[in-house]
Amino acid sequence: MAGLIDLKKLQSIIQRTPEEKNLPKHLILNLFPLNSQEENKKEEFNKLLDIFFEMMDLQKEKNIPIMTISLGGKEDIDENVLFEKTKLILKKANEYRMKVSVFGRWYDLRGQLVEELKRLNSETDGFDNFFLNICINYDPKQEIADASRVIIRKILMEKLDIDSGADFSDIIKKSNIGKDEAKKLIEELLKEGEIFELKPGRLKLIN
């Protein structure tokens, strides 16, 4: 059972014991600040991360297998503060044997922070006591679109050595994405110059 919980309702969860059957198996929280004005951003984000660490403790204390926490979009995040706090996230994750997975377009953040987030992913990979998903700059629709583009590129890669390229209808069929969505993504790849049309209905990846 997954539960999207308002922070104001957390008190009822905190009062339960880990043995209770009605504790959620997957807790989903949106923590991004309501006030992300530049002058208050650092202070607000620090408060948000204080709650984030409380949630890590709560997951361990209440034995909640999976927790997903959204920290909002790039505009909501103080990158300097998050960079400073990633070591504490990793320390707690190691202590609780908690696998941390970071989702979203977090690779759009500054380089040092991206490297620290990669460490969170890699250094907790072997843990399975708890699973903590952190969503940063996460757009589900965009994530699906990006994954679909990868599928289409992979199909075209398989045809890279074939001079005649890949058949348009064959790509759509193999992608299992859906005709309209696959057509839209192929048109985007054509506009971006990642693929080209050898002749009507035949596509090839630019290597």
Structural account:
It is a single chain. By secondary structure, the protein is an alpha/beta fold. It has two domains: 2-138, Undecaprenyl pyrophosphate synthetase (3-Layer(aba) Sandwich); 141-205, Winged helix-like DNA-binding domain superfamily/Winged helix DNA-binding domain (Arc Repressor Mutant, subunit A, Orthogonal Bundle). It is 47% helix and 17% strand. It has seven helices and eight strands; from the N terminus they run E-H-E-H-E-H-E-H-E-H-E-H-H-E-E. It has helices at 10-14, 41-61, 79-96, 111-123, 140-158, 168-175, 179-191, and strands spanning 2-4, 26-30, 66-70, 98-103, 130-135, 166-167, 195-199, 202-205. The strands form two sheets. The chain has a five-stranded parallel sheet. It has a three-stranded antiparallel sheet with strand order 6-8-7. Strand 1, helix 1 and strand 2 (26-30) form a beta-alpha-beta unit. Residues 1-6 have low confidence and may be disordered.
Task: Report a brief summary of the structure.
By secondary structure, this protein is α/β, with parallel strands linked by helices. The protein contains 7 helices and 8 strands, in the order E-H-E-H-E-H-E-H-E-H-E-H-H-E-E.
Provide the spatial order of strands within the biggest beta sheet. Answer: 1-2-3-5-4
Which regions contain 5 or more consecutive residues with pLDDT less than 50?
1-6
**How many β strands by DSSP?**
8
Cα distance spanning the termini: 45 Å
The name of the CATH superfamily of the largest domain reads: Decaprenyl diphosphate synthase-like
Number of domains: 2
Helix content: 40-55%
What gross morphology would you assign? elongated
The share of residues in extended strands comes to 15-25%
Structural class: alpha/beta
User: What would the average pLDDT be, to the nearest integer?
Assistant: 81
Radius of gyration, in angstroms, nearest whole number: 21 Å
Shape-level CATH architecture of the largest domain: 3-Layer(aba) Sandwich
- Overall CATH class of the largest domain: Alpha Beta
**Would you list the SSEs in sequence order as H and E?**
EHEHEHEHEHEHHEE
CATH topology of the largest domain: the name is Undecaprenyl pyrophosphate synthetase
